[in-house]
Each structure stands twice: as structure tokens, then as C-alpha cells.
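User: I'm putting together notes for a lab meeting next week and I want to include a structural view of one of the chains we've been expressing. I don't have a solved structure, so I'd like a prediction I can at least talk through. The sequence is below, exactly as it appears in our construct file.
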Amino acid sequence: MTIFEIGNRVAIKIDRHLAMILLGSLMRAASESTYCAGWMMGLEDDLPEACQHLIGGTDNGYNLYIGTVSRIDAEIMVAIAKSLGHWVDYDNNPYIPECDQTGVSHD
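Assistant: Thanks for the context. Below is the predicted structure for the 107-residue chain, given as C-alpha cells.
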């Protein structure tokens, strides 16, 4: 089981495999709403850092995601990735982004 917390508001306990599928689904939805593409090339490297900027309220060049990905969705994706210790790729396999600044532990 995987437990992830979203701020101080919610803690959710779900199966690890389901958490990976949920994370992949949220990443796909972010890609679809931003680029009108189910999984834009490079999403698995760009989105984790963009989520940090969305949560922190900064743009820093990620204005494509501003307005298309909500802060709560960004918080959920980061919380799941932190809990899992990784993000996911197109096939929902574990993936460590090239420049991961989300505080995900890679143990």
C-alpha cells in the first residue's frame, strides 16, 4: 500500500500499482489540456519541475501549464511521486526525471 498526503488536508492509502496508474493518468491529462496531445514528448521530464512552479506560484518559463493544470492537480502528482519515490513514463513504468527538483526520494 502507498500512502500519500496532499498538503495537510488529505491522506490517501492505495495500492502501489494503482498509484502509478493514477499518476500516469494525471500526467496524461496535463499533457492533453496543455498540448492537446495524450503524452507530449518529454512530458516525463518537464512536468515534474513545472508542478513545483505551479505549487510555488512561479512561472519560470512553464506558462504553458499555468491555467491548464490546477495547483491541486500539481500537488496530487507531486505527492504521489514522492510517496512512490519516482514519477512514471508513457507506459506507467517507474521513471526518474532528468532534472527532478520535486523532492522525490530515489531510494
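A couple of points you could mention at the meeting. Residues 2-95 form one domain. The first strand starts at residue 2 and ends at 6.

User: Perfect, that's what I needed.
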